[in-house]
């Protein structure tokens, strides 16, 4: 059995490789990028929510007041977008939609959440994850485009400002719902998942259960995807 | 910002926005465009009383001081020469400033608690200390009145001289008007005066004269006699001003629905965790880090 330190070392730059009982899922730079985007998201959230509704007015204090939120929010949003773009191009190669993935857009995900479904064909990412990937990329773009209009209201005509308010709102609401489930699945619903983003490695058992296709590919060297 | 005036409405306030113990009469400014001579004394009075910066002007072939209001210029006589088929050549002038809506779009759009307030007397005012300079009020206003001050990064507009009104004086512009086309008093009195004037104009050949007090924003704190009231757009006034749909959609529909959906998904996730629980990986609990 390899020592955990060895796996941790390997996870710095290698990916999709076996180290003893562990498999490296995300190399260091991927993990750092993910957490940078997550940080930008939460700064955007905490600085944007009190502008969205006074219900979240208490969050403004964390940023140094509502006037500070007005300054911080757009810049945090720009960082979030830039990070999202980098993440998009890093992961795009693994996110090709395959025939089996489409089933995940429907009842299969419900059965999976009900612990009644295990898809033996799933590769490194299942259809639900891929859907989240594309939705998040589209959402980041929508938030940026509408956000720029709200950022510089004197530069845009009234109609565009109205469209910006509505688009920013709708995109944010959908994004927030998606993030709730993203965090819940990674941190609570599927044990041993979060370590893929912290240590970079997952257990073989976890990989066999959630991503059997990827497991076979990495452990047995069989590439199944066309 | 006037201290001590009772507040009827306050931007982005969840509750307790009404401070009113005393009932104050709603006030209004009366503008008669048919007796305005375009002397611009009101512009000067406004600049002087409010200590606004001198704005450099350029001669562009019009009597109008500036193309539009600025953060340092809250009261502008708008001049318009217009050739019409049915009524011939018209030289129109109208005093442009904050209309002090009964249902202010700026206040509805403002996300900063207390940055825009409506006093019990109907005056809509800005508290620069609370304004965060987001510019949402620009989007909320159907009359294109609020101006963003690049220097202070705050919004600025006519206050209806609330600092004068609260000590029993009329606005500076009204005080300076030499023809009496500007008047100040209770809303009821100003509307009555306007209606009487409209009847007089109708009897004197201006059959289309109206009193502009648009119901779409609940009426305004500035009532305007228009000689050609069937065409408010000739005077640069919107025909049927309303709080913009986008602002209403945001505050009244998307926000409550969004909150329901976001908190609903947290509850759904919690419910799933409690009823279905985490998925077993089939490994023993050893090293059970998440």
Give the largest interface pair and sizes: A-B, 46 and 44 residues
What ranges of chain A have pLDDT less than 50 throughout 5 or more consecutive residues? none
Strand content of chain A: under 5%
End-to-end C-alpha gap of chain A: 33 Å
Separate helix tally of chain A:
10
- Ends of chain B: how far apart? 55 Å
Mean pLDDT of chain A: 92
How does the major sheet of chain A shape up? 3 strands, antiparallel
* Main β-sheet description of chain B: 4 strands, mixed
Average of pLDDT of chain B: 93
User: Any idea what the shape of chain A is?
Assistant: elongated
SSE string of chain A:
HEEHHHHHHHEHH
Helix content of chain B: 25-40%
SSE-based structural type of chain A: mainly alpha
Low-confidence stretches of chain B: 286-290
| SSE order of chain B | EEHEEHEEHEEHHEHEEH
The residue fraction in helices of chain A comes out at 55-70%
Q: Nearest-angstrom radius of gyration of chain B? A: 25 Å
Number of E strands of chain A? 3
What would your notes on this structure say?
The complex is a heterodimer of chains A (226) and B (290). Chain A is mainly α and 226 residues long. Helices cover 65% and strands 4% of the residues of chain A. Chain A has helices at 4-10, 28-52, 57-63, 66-91, 107-113, 127-151, 158-189, 195-198, 204-210, 212-219; strands at 17-19, 22-24, 201-203. In chain A, helix 3 crosses helix 4 (66-91), helix 4 packs antiparallel against helix 6 (127-151) and helix 9 crosses helix 10. With 290 residues, chain B is of the alpha+beta class. Chain B is built from seven helices and eleven strands. The radius of gyration of chain B is 25 Å and the shape is elongated. The interface between A and B is large, with 46 and 44 residues.
